[in-house]
Specification:
- This protein is an alpha/beta fold.
- The chain has 15 helices and 19 strands.
- Helix 9 runs parallel beside helix 10 and helix 10 runs parallel beside helix 11.
- The structure holds iron/sulfur cluster.
- The site of iron/sulfur cluster has 9 residues, from helix 8.
Amino acid sequence: MGKKKRRTRRESKQPSFFLLTLGCPKNEFDSEGISEMLLQARYHSTPDPAAADVMIVNTCGFLQAAKDESIQTLRELAASKRKNQLLIAAGCMAQRFGAEVTQQVDGLDGLIGTRSWADIVPFIQNLRANKRPEPLFHLPETGDVPLETVALNRQQVNPGRTSAYLKISDGCSAPCAFCTIPGFKGLNRSRPREHLLAEARRLQDSGVQEIILIAQDTTAYGRDWGQTDGLPSLLEELVAAAPEIRWWRLMYAYPGHATNRLVEVMAAHPQIIPYIDMPLQHGHPDTLRRMRRPHNVDKLLRWIESYRGALPHAVLRTTFIVGYPGETEAEFQGLLDFMGAVEFDRAGAFVFSPEPGTPAFDLPDQIDAQTAQARWERLMEFQQPISLRRNQQMVGQRLDVIVDGAGDGVSITRSYRDAPEIDGYVVVEKELPVGSMVPVFVTGAMEYDLMAVPADEPILVM
Ligand code: SF4
């Protein structure tokens, strides 16, 4: 009895952490790394911020709206902070705005940047050991911490996951005039191939079925070493290294870097699912030129044709920016015409956000907020019947789906057409084992989601 009590007291001394991730899948990937490092250091994770010794927010600072959300979240946690609890801002907003964050959030104990999170354990130890009146900064200039170090620190993966992100590079070398990312993440740096192959094998061995390749620009993989087709070669090696992975999914492709070789490799390997997320930002050449983006729309259309020609039922997802400085009504209409011509399976949009420090911030002819918002609404309305039509083409098809959740007689699943937390679902009329991959028949379509029954159930054909 006495022994038991002593053990409980020792266990309760193990520090606990609460980790909240804001922003995109790239941040989720970094959060997994932070979490794994803390678990290895014998911290334990808690979903309750009030119960945690250390509260960490992996922030997003890409746009003003994301910064506001990060600040608000930090303020709420700071307001409920107990004595001896630590509050840390990690990630993009911490890196981008540094000291400014500490002026806006009272009670912040530390800031750790996008390429220094590998030091999270000693950073927290330092904070716990040394009480200090001012927050501690660990925001090395971009490039100070080798990316390889970060990669090497990811030694293990959480078991029991079906789907996992694999970040193949970090930073971006594209010159997009509206984007803050190269300013605080630095230029594109590809992770060493052998690290990625080893990580893919570990994910495979832990039971993961889907690996999602992410980066600021996945198609830039190897370009920092002078390779133009680094991504297709990497994909071939990954598929060979982890042959049991059922789905390889590609996010964040850049139109100027998507090659025919990429299409050939995707067509040759059925495990590389025919899904590409390619944020295009606009469809009118003049707007694209001002955005400093690839603006040869005919070339892009030819590439899309070859992608769809080589891969039946290929899915193309994209994102656009509306209300970019100087966007005339004719340019906006050109964007809608482009969307109508391509018929993207999925398309999202943002209203342009002028970010200080970017060339677009100072461009003339800024669009007023009302016009930009109205264009956003028109774009979303324009896309809806297209998404519905594309979904309707799937009715009657047999698809493999991953079961994400089940209850109340239905399962929430995803097919190759649905990236987690970004696209829609396939709702299956039966409770299926969560984490399994099962075949289904599609019976109905809505704008975002599909309805289906398990493939072994009789289907009622109307
Ligand atoms: S490609 Fe994407 S991340 Fe890179 S500069 Fe352009 S918008 Fe930013």
